Amino acid sequence: MIVxxxxxxxxxxxxxxxxxxYMGFQIIKDxxxxxxxxxxxxxxxDDPATLELIGSDKPYQGEGVYLGIHDDDPDKKRALFIExxxxxxxxxxxxxxxxxxxxxxxxxxxxxxxxx
Length: 116
Prior knowledge:
This protein has helices spanning 12-23, 74-83, and strands spanning 4-9, 26-30, 38-42, 50-55, 66-70, 92-95, 98-104, 110-114. The strands form two sheets. Strands 1-4-3-2 form a four-stranded mixed sheet, with helices on one face. The chain has a four-stranded mixed sheet with strand order 5-8-7-6, covered by helices on one side. The longest helix has 12 residues, at 12-23. The chain contains two helices and eight strands, in the order E-H-E-E-E-E-H-E-E-E. The protein is α/β, with parallel strands linked by helices. The chain folds into two domains: 1-57, 2,3-Dihydroxybiphenyl 1,2-Dioxygenase, domain 1, CATH 3.10.180; 65-116, Signal recognition particle alu RNA binding heterodimer, srp9/1. It starts with a strand and ends with a strand.
């Protein structure tokens, strides 16, 4: 079981805001007061899987990597991103009942929003 995904970011505050506003994540652990610019985020404090955002001078460079996020209504989420001026892919339906699209977070990381 994957329990953590870590992403280097030059724009930590923008990344936190993106995942809070659009993905419904919350900060579950913030170690910035102790020195390192690291924040752990998840949908809830009970969620076993976390997203670790690490402030860094090095930008994210993970070509071919994406983060998958479940959403019950990807069409509605996609419409929100378009309304907010974010660039999104077309909706794909790779199999019956599964709808998905991609959007980039502030670091350039591809985020797949999927109903599956």
